[in-house]
Amino acid sequence: MGPAEWWSRGEKRPFSLFLLIAGLHFVAILLFTRGFLLTRTELPHYSNCSDVSRSPCVPPTQFNQTNRNPLCWTKPAVDRLVIIVLDALRFDFVAPSTFFEERKPWMDKLQVLHKLASRPGSSARIFKAIADPPTTSLQRLKGLTTGGLPTFIDVGNSFGGSAIVEDNLVHQLVQNGKRVAMMGDDTWLQVFPHHFNKSYPFPSFNVKDLDTVDNGCIKHLLPALYEEDWDVLIAHFLGVDHAGHIFGVDSIPMIEKLEQYNAILEKVIEPLESQSGPGGLHENTLLLVMGDHGQTLNGDHGGGTAEEVETSIFALSLKKPPSSVALELDTSSCQLDLDGRKMCISSIQQLDFAVTVSALLGVPFPFGSIGLVNPELYAVAAGTWNLESSNVDSCQKQSNLEKWLQNYVNVLCINSWQVKRYIDVYSTSSVIGFSNEDLLHVSDMYTQAEENWLHTKKELMLHENESCHISLPTLKRQIDAYFKFLASAAELARSKWTEFNLKMMGIGFGIMLISLFIHFLAIKRIDKLFGVSVPSSCNSGISFWLIFAYIVVALRACSFLSNSYILEEGKAASFLLATTGILNLRYSIMKKKMLLEAMVFLLLISIVRFTIELGLSKRAFSSVLSNICPSWMLGIANGCPVWEYVAEIVPILALFLLAFMLYKSIARSSCQGFLKYVIIGTMFSYMLIAVYWALESNVLSLPLVLGGIKRNFIPRIIYAIGFVQLLSLALVQFFNEERSSDWEEGIVIKTVAMLSAWSSTIIILSGKQGPLVAFASVVGGWCITRSESLELDTKKWNSRILTFYSFPVTQWSLLAVCLFFCTGHWCAFDGLRYAAAFIGFDEFILIPQAVLLTIDTFGFSHILPIFGLPFIVACQYSFGQAEQRKRFFFMHLSQVYLMYGLIMATTMTFTILCVTIQRRHLMVWGLFAPKFVFDVVGLTLTDILICFASLYYFG
Amino acid sequence: MEKRKKKPVKASMGGNGTVSSASPSHAFLLHLICGLGLASSFWVANNVYSVNLITNPSQTLRLIWVIEAPIVILLYSLFRKNPDQCSYLKAVGRSMLVLPAGAVVNALGAIALGAPVGIQYFLRTLNWSLLMSLLTFVPAATVFGSSWTDWRRLFAHSKPIGSIDYMICLPAHGAVIGAWFGAWPMPLDWERPWQEWPISVSYGAMAGYLVAMVASFGFVLWHGDRQHVKGD
What we know:
Chain A: It is found in: Endoplasmic reticulum membrane. Chain A: InterPro entries: Alkaline_phosphatase_core_sf, Phosphodiest/P_Trfase, PIG-O_N, PIGO/GPI13. The complex is a heterodimer. By secondary structure, chain A is α/β, with parallel strands linked by helices. In chain A, about 60% of the residues lie in helices and about 5% in strands. Chain A contains 34 helices and eleven strands. In chain A, helix 7 links the parallel strand 5 and strand 6 (about 200). The longest helix of chain A has about 35 residues, at about 880-915. The radius of gyration of chain B is 18 Å and the shape is globular. Classes of the chains: A alpha/beta, B mainly alpha. The interface of A and B includes residues 578 and 590 of A.
C-alpha cells in the first residue's frame, strides 16, 4: 500500500490524530491541575452591619441600649488598635528560650514583651500564631485580613493587580467609619490601594536595605501615638525579614535588629501606658505585635515547614481586666522564663485573626472568613467592658465569668452563622464547590449547635424569674458545640483548598505519559509508512542528528527538575540553541556550503542571548522598573538623546523592512489573488503601527492632530484588520477550491498570509521591540530551513523523515523558547506584560484584554512558530514524481507537527513531574507553580493551534 | 561548545602528504608529558605562587597556559607533517600564530553559548580561551600547518586516520565536550565559588582533555596493533 492510498483513505486523519492528542493532554492537565492547584473562587460579597438580623443570634443591641453608637455585629471591646507587624518574626524570637530545648543567640532579645506578659495580673499575652503556607508576605497579608485560606489562583477579577477584592478586615474597618493609618512595607498599599486615611509606604523590594523601611516606620509611628486622627494604626517593619534573607537568623545584624526592635517596642509601649488612664488617649487601646510568617535559619520563607509557619502574636490591652476569665478555655502552656517569672503562651491560628479583631472592634466579620473568634485573644481585651453599666437590673448575682461567657457564646453564634453562610454561598456559586456529603456533615453540626442554643434560650425565657442566667456548664457545652462546627468547617475548607490530591495528580501524570506514548507511536507509524512506500528505502539507522535531537530535548526537559534551571530557563535554552548552531556550522564546513547561514544563525543566537540576559536583569528589579519602562529598549535609551532617536527610528525601519519582505514574497509568487490582498492588508497595518509609534513618540513631537481618541483608534483598527484577515483566511479555506498546479508555492504563500495576519497584532502589542524580534524570528527561521537543506543532498530523499526533521524541528522549538524570553517575558505572573493589554483600551474589559495579553505573551513563542512550521517542509521539498509529491508533502508536514507537539508535551510532562516532586518545596508557589501554569497554557495553546493549522494547511 | 571554525587559509598543501606516524610509546610519552605539564602547572600555582583556580581564576589560568604552551608546542612540533619541507622552527612559529587566533574562535563560541561579557570578565575569558586554544587548535596547527583538508578531516568530519590524527583530534574534542559539560553546573543555586565563569568550565575542559588523552592512547595502541596484524 502506498502512502498515496493510505493518505486518501484517511483524508482527515491528521486532524483527528491531533484532536485525539489534544484531548488526552487536556484531560491529563485537567486532572493534574485539580489535584495540584489549589483553586478557590473569590466571592464578591461583603458583610454588612444589617446582615446580623438574619442570623438566629441575639444582636448585641439587646444587651446594651446605652451605647451612643448603633451597634453592629458584636459589642466593641476596644476603641483603638495598634498593630505592629514585624515581618518574618519567628516564634522563638518572641517566646522565652525556656520553651525550647536549647538557648540560641537570637532568643530572648525582645525582653520587653516577656516583662509585660509575665507581669502578674497583666492583660498581655504571647501567642504562637500558626500561618498557612505559602508563607510569603503578600499571601499572609491576604490571609490575615480576609480570614480565608490562601490559594494559588484566586479565580476572580484580580486581573492585573494584587489588590484584595474579597471582603476583608481593612475594608470592614473603613466601611464602619474607622480611620486606618499605615506605615512601613508598601505591600499594604498594593493590596489596599484606597483604604488608608494616612499612609507612609516605603519600598520593600530592596532586600539588602535593612533600615529604610524601619527608620521610616519609627519616624512616623512614635509621633502618631500622641495623635487622635486614627482608630487603627498599622506599622509594618521589614528589617528582620531582610536581615534573614541576607545574613540568616544566626547573625549579628539579626540580633542587632531584634535589639533595636526591643528598644522601639519599649518606646511604643511607654506613651501608650502613660496615656491609658481614664479619659486618656489610649484608655481602651489594644496593642498587637505580630509576625506575618516565620523564617528558616537561612532566612527563607514561603514553604510550609514548622519554622516558617510558626510566628507569634503579642497582645496587650491597656485597660486592666477586672478579673482573669475563661480559664477552662485556655489552651496555653506555661513555663518559667529565665528570670523565674511564670509565662503562659497560647496558640492561635492565623486564620482566626481577622474575625477575632473584627469581633473586638465591633465591625462585621469579613464575608469569606472561616476562622473562629479565638477565646484567649478575645479575652485579652474583651474582659475589659465596664460590666457594671450593662445588665444592671436583674442579675446582680451573675459572675463576671458567666457574663463574659454568655457574651462569647453570642459572638460564637454570629461567627458560626457567618461561616455557615459563607460555605453555603460558596458551594452554590463556585464551579468547584464542596462535595455534598461534606456539606451535609457540616450543616448537621451547625443545626445541632443552633438547636441546642435555641433550646437553651427558650429555657431561659421560660424560667426567667427563677434564674436570670444560663448555667456555666450549659454555656460551655454550647461553646464546645460551636467550636466543633467551626473546626470542622475550617477542616473542610483546608482539605479542599490547601491539600494536594495525590491520586488525581498521579492519574493526570499517567494520562500524560500515555499521550506521549501515543504521540511517539504516531510519529513512528508515519515514519514507517513513508519508509515502506519509498522503494529504495535504505535504513540509515539511528543518525547522529536524531540522537542529538533526543539529547537536546531530554536535557531541556530534565533541567526543569531543578529550580535553578527554571529560573534561568532562557539561558539554558539559548545555550542548547547555540550548541545546535555550532554543530550546524561544523556541518556546513564539512559540506563546504551554507557557511553564511550558519554564521548568521550563530550571530543571531548571540544577540538573542544578550537580550535574554537583559530581560533577566530587568526581572531582578521586579515589577517596579517594568512599570516605568515597559520595553527594554527604552530602558537603554534613557539619557543619551542620540540613542533615543535610534530607539525610535530603528523599530520603524525594521517595520518597513518586514513590509518590504512581505512585498517581495507576494511579488515573487505568481498570483493567488485573494491571499495577496490579505498580505497587503498586513503591510497597511505595519504602516499604521509606524504612524502610531511616530505619534506616540515624544522625540518627533508631532502635533497631536487627532485628539484623544486617536490613541486607541489606531490599535483597534489594527486588531480589526488582523481579525478580518484571519476570518477571511478561514473562509477561503472553506470556499476556495485550490488549484493543484502550483500547490507548493500555494502552501508557502498561505503560510506567509497566515503569519502576516497574526504579525501586525503581535508586533503592536510587543511594543517597539516587536519588529526587531519579528525580524529576528524571520532570520532564524530562514537559517534553520536553509541549513536543513544541507542534509538533504547527502541523505537524499529516501532517508526516514524522523531522522530528517527531528533536528530542525528541535531547533525551531528552541528558537521559539528563546523568543519567549527575549521578548521580556518569564514564567511568572509578574512576567506578564500587563501594559500590552491596555494598548488600544483605556478602561478594563476582561475578555478582550485577556485575549490581548495571551497574544502578547505567546505570540512570538507559540503562535508564529507553529503557523510557520510548513516552511521547514516547504522550503526544501523538491523531489519525487509530481502526483506523489503532494501526498508526501502533507505526510511530512503532519510528521513535523507531530514532532513539534511531542517536544512541547515532553517538556510539559517533565514540568508536571517536577511540580509533583517539589510540591513541598520552598519555592513551589513562587516558581514551580507559575512555571506549571505557563506550560499548561502553552501546551493547550500549542494543541489548539496545531489543530487549527492542520485544518488550515491540510484543507 | 565552541566547536571548531577555522579561518579558510589557502590550502597549499595536499591532504595526502607524507603522514608521519607515531608509535604507541611516542604517543604515550607525549600524552604523559602533556598531562604532567597540566599537573605541574597546578602544582606551581598552588605551591609557588599560592594561587588556585577558585580564588584567582585568571592568574591560575594564565600560569597553566604559560607552562603548558611550550610543552604542547615543542612536543607536537616533533610530529609535524612533511618534516623535510617544514622546519621545526616553522612549526613552532605557526603554532604561536594560531594560539591567539584559536583563542578568538574559542572566546566567540563561548560568548555565543552564554559566557558573561564585561570588563571584569575580560582577563578570565582571555586566559581561558588561550588555554582552550592550546588544548584544541594549537596541536593541529603545529602538525598540519595551514592544510585545510586536514583541518576539515579532523574537526568537521572528526574522522582521524593514523595515530597522529588520534593524538590531535581526540584531546581537542575531549576538551571542548568537557567544557560544554562543565558549563552545566553554573546556573545552580549552590552558591559555591567554583560555579563562577570560567572555573567549572576550565575544570571540565581539562578533565575532558585528560580523559580523551587516555582514550587517544588506547586508540593508538589498538591502531598500532591492527597495523601490525595487517603487516603480518
